[in-house]
Design brief:
mainly beta, about 150 residues, 10 strands, about 50% strand
Length: about 150
């Protein structure tokens, strides 16, 4: 299994999505690991991405990061849309971009088992429902669907 950002907890609430986890298969480069960041990347888009600081815990590469869900629909971004999550920074083997997911438990095909609530959000005249979900490969993504309410 290649390196990835192992997600331990997902907290979608209060207009944000909070992720808690640790790097797996990659170690942060020696020195302060403050330059790691969460990348939220629009799938099938024009290389649009959002970036949020995700400083790592110096002992085990742990992270605790959150981002506002309104950022995923603001400024005319497409809805519906899917966003993929990565942690990026300097590892001991060079620049790293690690897919966020949950691979180390014994639960396979989480897509239909671990279901998170959607959050209603409005920005730039668009209303949507935003929710994280596990893909068929047990990676974590976020979908934005039109809110018809």
């Amino acid at each position: 299994m290649s390196g990835h950002a192992e997600i331990a907890q997902v907290w979608p609430r209060d207009g944000r999505i909070r992720l808690v986890g640790a790097l797996h298969g990659e170690r942060p480069a020696p020195g302060p690991a403050k330059d790691w960041r969460l990348l939220v990347v629009l799938r099938d888009g024009d290389a649009t991405e959002r970036e949020y600081p995700a400083p790592l815990d110096g002992t085990d590469g742990g992270f605790d990061v959150s981002f506002p869900v309104a950022d995923l629909i603001a400024g005319g971004l497409p809805v519906p849309a899917v966003w993929d999550l990565y942690l990026a920074g300097e590892s001991d083997s060079g620049p790293a971009r690690l897919r966020a997911g949950r691979q180390l438990d014994d639960i396979k095909r989480k897509k239909n088992i671990m279901v998170f609530p959607a959050q209603p959000v409005a920005a730039s005249g668009t209303k949507a429902r935003v929710k994280p979900y596990y893909t068929i490969k047990d990676n974590l993504s976020v979908e934005c669907l039109p809110d018809k309410a």
